[in-house]
Amino acid sequence: MSSHATTHSGHDAHHDDHHHDPGFIRKYVFSTDHKMIGIQYGITAMLFLAFGFYLMMVMRWSIAFPHQPLPEWMSWVFTDSWKARWLQDGKVTGETYNMFGAMHGTIMVFLGIVPLGFGAFGNYVTPLQIGAPDMAFPRLNMMSYWIYLAGGLVMCASFFMESGAAKSGWTNYSPLAGFADGQIVNQWLAGQTQWLLGLVLLITSSLLGSVNFITTIINLRARGMTWMRMPFFVWAMLVTGFLLLLAFPPLEAAGIMQLMDRVAHSSFFMPSGLFTKSEGLADLSGGGSPLLFQHLFWFLGHPEVYVLLLPAFACVSEIIPANTRKPLWGYKSMVYSVLVLGFLSFIVWAHHMYMTGMGAAVSTFFQTTTVLISVPSVVIITSMLISLWGGSIRFTPPMLWACAFIPMFGIGGLTGLPLAFNLADLHLHDTYYVIGHFHYVVAPGILFGFFAGVVHWYPKITGRYMSSWLNHLHFWPSLVCMNIIFFPMLLQGMAGFHRRWYNGGDAYLAKAADSANVFGKTVAAHIDMNILMSMGAWTMALAQIPFIINLFISWKTGRKVESDNPWEATTLEWATPTPPGHGNFTFDPAVYRGPYEYSRPDCDKDFLPQWIEPKREESADAADAAKTPAAHH
Amino acid sequence: MEIPYVVTPRKDTGLFNSKIAIWLFLASEVMLFGGFFSAYVFLRLGADYPWPERTLPVLPGLINTFVLIGSSVTVVFAWAALKMRQWNKFRMHMTITVVCAGVFMVLKGIEYSVKFHHQAVRLHDYTVVEGHLGYEMEDGKHVLDHHGHHIEENQIRIEATGLTFSTVRFHADWVEEMITQAEHRKAKITLASDIKARTEEGSSEEVTIAKAGEPLSVELLKRVQDAHLKARAHNGALRTAALRQEWAEAKAANPGKRGWQLASNVNIDVKALEDSKRMLTEISTASFKVEPAARMDFKPRDVKEGATQSRLRDDTVIDGKMLASPMVFHNVDAIDFRHLAMKAVEKGQDPIVAIENSWLIKNDEFARKAWEWNKQEVAKLEKKLIDEYGIDEKTGKPKREPTAKERYRLGWQDLARKAESEGHGKLGAVERITEEFKGPNYEARGKETFPELSVPREEIRFASKFTPSWNTYYAIYFTITGLHGLHVIGGALVLAYYLLFGRKMYETNPEWLANRVEVGGLFWHFVDLVWIFVFPIFYLM
To answer: DSSP letters of A551-604?
Structure first.
């Protein structure tokens, strides 16, 4: 660590480097500073999340009121021309619903959650927590962000094309996806092709990102930051990095092959003798395998779930010890669990494919691994739960979210178990039960973890607290609405509601009003829940307004922090000036102990940060100092 | 601020940053190519057609293998030279490396371009014919399309009397081509009737947007399109407002009822809307007549042909009867009955009988003779195998038998051998070696070896150039080798950058340059390693 900013004077340390003041563009737009890039990722990802949320609100209208025109408070965003193309007398059509559904999933997963968790939190916090001046490759870091943005824009641009955006689900299964938009002569301007191009860009971005993260964590740790002294946050990011690094390439392969199917008319995923209503007998060589796409997709798809989840685990596991004032319970078992989890996530993918007729032996294998992977997840979540036990909990704003994360993620995780079993999955596959399950994981689970993270690190980023009052106004309605939206999904799913009904089961009722399924449940008895759920979804949009206000208002008017370590936490990011300048630390950081030394009996204060040099007995002369861990070379 | 461990390795890990990064990157590359090679295995094991074996030219592939291995050695020499601070030696070895990459790409380029010009067709009875297509000729001259390119004799020909375009979706390039073709055949494409429309809300007069008799042009279609899109947007808003009104009334009249219980009775009164003159005229199609009726040619992939009406992919409807549209091979260079034999065996038929009943054997003199010659050759081969390997005593069958390829495929080498045995198409040594790279030499060997063949449209099941669309073998071959080629180009560009622009860094921080070359070299080794897998899998197996 050769050079750092030189003064210790807290808040304005970043003004020191006057001689290389980079100018507005280099500082805020094409910045190579991991903190600025993290903020860019964060803001962009939140915008995409808002867009994905909006798509969902339109879909929820179609589900609840399929025969009524989209109300003006939602449809004002579109031009008349767009509405004439995609809405029928103002009603959402099946085609439009499919487009919004596919893009909702894609945007939320690839453009929202992953960039927010890995790109934003990972970028901002990881180098600070390991005591590094920046990422190992700052320019590569900048490139990751811009490629991500380009990928996102390419995907979303297709909303305005004649073809519309992709309509074949976020999983983009062939041959459905292979035929979609086949009527478009210039395939490069078809939504389905743009989706693939965007995806290849996004994969490139996460690939560069993950190489950068892993290198940084391996090589740029401060003196004394041994592996088992790394905060759990950093471990989670390391595993996330490896998942992205190794799981994404097979999807890139699948994406390239599907792109070839589209623009070079190959038949990678198109079987022989394919006949469609629109095209008749397909003018293709055939001989390909639709199942191959599913295998390659889910080889990424499942690790991807953990790419979403681990950053949320990471945030929560930092916030809990800081607010219970006791060490994270079972730090080592959590670390080993997250490693095991990372490994196992590579061999569970085909549990998404029980219905494809892979054969009983294959299904049984994947059922076994899937049940196995719940063990490390449960170890982690249980450790978090036990960490609360006996602590004198400070219910600070971030802690509120972290406390809600645990049961919400718990519901999401446990409802996954029935889906892991072949037999139960036969019934629940492709129903709203599945939607309820994974949305519990992602929305009130992972997103709550991220809200916790935003509130927790906001004082470090801006030097001000977010408003606690607005936070309450955001938190409680969100918590209630999340459950109003997603809990009925589990019930509807068991009643047999198919996940892709664009009219919420209405057309089904017209055909079979009183047919009960194996559970003795009927669609008729559960269809009115649609209205309740949709109301919950729209109310939740309102509940996000306090957050947006809070995010911007507090930047200027929030209560100022009293010190560089406002939560009295122990990890290295709190040793930097507020906000940290370019180069992060004003001293050469060294680490003397584990990451969660709270309430040590031998200590006056209830926390002992990693960077505080231990007091020496008697003479602290030069010879003794040389034996301390700080001096290892 | 300075990032540590850019040049010197960190003590406890023993690595500098970019070395970790390149190994991680290569790990992900392994997963990427792993994905493709898994796809290869999946496709090959699941193929429902005879997987092409040893169809690629081995000699250029073999040369490329040695070229790449050689360059992997020189890149290490270049790195070692930098470590020893010998700039000139570095420059020499790096130049060789980059030149090797160039040689590799040139050979690859020749291999690709031969395939892109090579046509294959699968007939309805699964006979496969390969060769080169002829070009459309008139009065001894090539017919050109509106881009000025030759047109292959593989077109759907329609005697067009009328054309109806979708005003939203028409493809401008195709419109231009139709105009060119009509001019060429001295026909006129003109608007069939006036296009009139209400373009302002409430006005009772209709505006004429285009007059009957106006010649077809992209500009005309765009003008109609503008009016149509404007009307569509306007009407959409009106209809939506009307439906909102209906729902408000229905809900007020039926309190407590659910939307799905009312839905079937809530509809817009479209007639009232139209009578109110508030709706604008939507013009979703525009019809033209072709006078006098003229032949128009379309690429088979673009058109769904019908006896009296055909449809292009952009929703253009062509009225007129379909003319004979044969696919004409200028030179046939292979006849392949493997797929046909495979299908016959699946159905429990004798493959030889099935072949001899095929359309090709029945209708083409050359094919019939070639097949007879092949049967004799197979008989000779069977005898030779028995003489060499003997007969299995338990089963009473020969220990080795000819492969399906030997039995049922007449490749270009076979046809050349047949013609040579009849005294045609003797070639010199140089021409023979050229054939190893560029495929059969039609000019020198002549029509006795590679004859003409005209295949009627109705016999064709599927036709393609030797591109990814021909079958999944060529699809995966082009994808993997293409991606590998991109890696070669990318790697060579990086190495060339160190070669051409590395001098300044060499003078200021030679160790850093050496690190960079080391990292680039690791990548180069990986590119080589991929080829070591590609070569046997695609060229030899």
So the answer is: HHHHHHHSPBPSSS-TT---SGGGGS-SS-BTTB-SS--B--S-S--BS-TT-S
A323 to chain B, closest Cα gap in Å: 34
Interface test with A, best of B28, B470, B515, B526 (most A CBs within 10 A): B28
Residues B423 and B488 in one domain: no
| Nearest residue on chain A to B471, alpha-carbon basis | A285
pLDDT digits (tens, 9 = 90+) for A433-448: 999 999 999 999 999 9
In the predicted structure, residue A493 carries a pLDDT above the cut 80: yes
Give the containing element (helix H, strand E) for B158. Answer: strand B156-166
Residue B288 sits in the same domain as residue B310: yes
**Distances B227 to A130, A377, B210, B238, B453 between C-alpha atoms, Å:** 63, 60, 11, 17, 50
Given B433, B465, B497, which residue is the final one in a domain?
A: B465
pLDDT at A12 over 70: no
- Over residues A310-335, the mean pLDDT reads 97
pLDDT of residue A622: 52
Q: Residue A579: is the preceding peptide bond cis (ω within 30°)? A: yes
Domains along the sequence of chain A with CATH:
31-270+285-574 (1.20.210.10)
- Chain A hits for B2, CB-CB cut-off 8 Å, are 2-3, 133
Regarding whether B344 and B294 lie in a shared domain, the answer is no
CB contact under 8 A, A183 and B20: no
Residues 267-296 of A with CB under 8 A from B: 267-268, 272, 279-280, 283-289, 292, 295-296
Q: Are residues B351 and B495 in the same domain?
A: no
Residue B45 token pair: 């094991």
Confidence (pLDDT) at A618 = 58
Same domain for B101 and B187, yes or no, is: no
Domain with B52, as residue range(s), is 17-118+468-540
Residue A9: predicted pLDDT = 40
Whether the model clears a pTM of 0.80, i.e. scores above it, the answer is yes
Q: Report B:168-227 residues touching A (Cβ under 8 A).
A: 168-169, 171, 173-174
Same-domain status, B232 and B302: yes
User: In this predicted model, what pLDDT tens digit does every residue of B284-339 receive, in sequence order?
Assistant: 999 999 999 999 999 999 999 999 999 999 999 999 999 999 999 999 999 999 99
Tell me the average pLDDT of chain A: 92
Same domain (yes/no): B228, B308: yes
